[in-house]
Amino acid sequence: MLVIVVENVPPRLRGRLAIWLLEVRPGVYVGNLSKRVREMIWNQVETALEDGNAIMIWNTNTESGYDLLTLGKNRRIPVELDGIKLVSFTSQLENKNVL
């Protein structure tokens, strides 16, 4: 299973994602694809992201059963703690200073 969530991305990227994945909600795409196709899709997200942000989550053989990657500015930052990926939040003040 593969899930990609995008925010504030160009319409052409959303259209490209809709070719390979099912858009179940605005900006939320799901599918069941091979590693090779997943990497190709993520490369397209990296190339076309512009000022938006994205997260990709897929099932894998880890302690938690999934792995994730993020791109762009967002308050949620993935952190690894004892081999398990969790999501940390930055303060709103820090987030405003980054922008």
Question: Secondary-structure blueprint of this entry?
Answer:
Elements: E1 2-7, H1 11-20, E2 22-25, E3 28-31, H2 35-48, E4 53-59, E5 66-71, E6 76-81, E7 84-89, H3 92-98
Helix pairs in contact: 1-2
Summarize this structure briefly.
By secondary structure, the chain is α+β, with helices and mostly antiparallel strands. The chain has helices at residues 11-20, 35-48, 92-98, and strands at 2-7, 22-25, 28-31, 53-59, 66-71, 76-81, 84-89. The chain has a single domain (2-71), classed as Alpha-Beta Plaits, CATH 3.30.70.
Number of DSSP strand runs: 7
How many helical elements? 3
Return residue spans where pLDDT drops below 50 for at least 5 consecutive residues.
none
Average pLDDT, to the nearest integer?
A: 88
CATH class: Alpha Beta
What spatial order of strands do you see in the largest sheet? Answer: 2-3-1-4-5
Main sheet record: 5 strands, antiparallel
User: What is the CATH architecture assignment?
Assistant: 2-Layer Sandwich
Give the N-to-C terminal Cα separation. 33 Å
SS class: alpha+beta
Q: What is the strand content?
A: 35-45%
**What is the global morphology?**
globular
- SSE succession: EHEEHEEEEH
Written overview of the protein:
The chain is globular, with a radius of gyration of 14 Å. By secondary structure, the chain is an alpha+beta fold. Helix 1 (11-20) packs antiparallel against helix 2 (35-48). It has a five-stranded antiparallel β-sheet, covered by helices on one side. The protein contains three helices and seven strands. The chain has a single domain (2-71), classed as 2-Layer Sandwich (Alpha-Beta Plaits), CATH 3.30.70.240. Strand 4 (53-59) and strand 5 form a beta hairpin. It has helices at 11-20, 35-48, 92-98; strands spanning 2-7, 22-25, 28-31, 53-59, 66-71, 76-81, 84-89. The model has no long low-confidence stretch (mean pLDDT 88).
